[in-house]
């Protein structure tokens, strides 16, 4: 059966892909991972199923993350992944192809932006709208971006941290740094090697970060067992790790995020600075849930930082709302020109 493709917003993230569908909200949330058979180039699994294979595949199967640091590092696989997610969320046989909005980090080059647009079109979109990630995050966090009032958004994702001051619907000052959730994991892996001679995998590092990670040492110390391979004798090993150690491991990464926030504040026009110090900083993205990040931002900037509701979903919700807005704006423009004919 043919049906009208619904218009959707896609948060094409380094860590996960989320799809927002008009009237239904978030209809898909899966890791941005694809498992490929290296001999036949066939896709064996996408999303959650592929993530379970990460680091555990036999030699001929490779589980890859086609996006790195917020940009596409493997075009062919990204296109196939987007096609799979579009089909999963809006079906395969359309009477009208879906209009799709996709977000990109604020500092991508024109070439990268065009690549995302082209890939989404190849993957099945009738029309593609590109929106900058901090703008989408702000819309999704419920900020009225069109007001003449400064709002600051700090979106800490997996691959990039996007920071922007938004007023009257646009970015006034922004930056995007390639220090985000994945880098915190890498810092933990490096720390475990250095301090404990223990080689741990990406998933273990992420569990440590989520369960006992902190960037603000103000609470009772908690511990967790980390399993890996002892680098000295090559045997499996388990070590008790403390939250204080995690704080030490992630200190540099956290400082990079703070530096970027201060950089944007420093470049912000004074009228908008006043708005921000009154309204506070809104934090979105999965990485913003890292324990103590809000307190650290507040301590280092003197401005209150608040975690948005459902921080992981903000960008997708904002992207979806943007496509609704863009489609409606086009409709009323068409209507207006018909009236003037
Ligand atoms: N409770 C938590 N505490 C700390 N970090 C978390 C938590 N939950 C998720 N994360 C981290 O959030 C990151 C993913 O966030 P998100 O889904 O917003 O990224 P993304 O949009 O895919 O990436 P990007 O925007 O950089 O392309 C991962 O690094 C993950 O480890
Ligand atoms: Mg994101």
Description of the molecule:
- The chain has helices at residues 48-51, 75-90, 110-122, 133-140, 181-196, 202-212, 243-267, 270-279, 293-301, 314-340; strands at 3-4, 8-12, 16-21, 25-31, 34-37, 43-46, 61-64, 67-68, 71-72, 94-96, 99-104, 127-132, 151-156, 161-167, 170-177, 198-199, 223-230, 236-242, 281-284, 305-307.
- Helix 2 (75-90) packs across helix 3 (110-122) and helix 7 crosses helix 9.
- Helix content is 41%, strand content 28%.
- The mean pLDDT is 90.
- The strands form six sheets. It has a five-stranded mixed β-sheet with strand order 4-3-2-11-12. A five-stranded mixed β-sheet has the order 15-14-13-19-20, sandwiched between helices. Strands 6-5-7 form a three-stranded antiparallel β-sheet.
- It is flat, with a radius of gyration of 21 Å.
- It is built from ten helices and 20 strands.
- It folds into three domains: 3-137 and 314-340, 2-Layer Sandwich (Nucleotidyltransferase, domain 5); 144-179 and 257-307, Nucleotidyltransferase, domain 5, CATH 3.30.420.40; 181-250, ATPase, substrate binding domain, subdomain 4 (Actin, Chain A, domain 4), CATH 3.90.640.10.
- Strand 19 (281-284), helix 9 (293-301) and strand 20 (305-307) form a beta-alpha-beta unit.
- 46% of the residues are buried.
- The longest helix has 27 residues, at 314-340.
- The protein has 341 residues and is of the alpha/beta class.
- The structure holds adenosine-5'-triphosphate and magnesium ion.
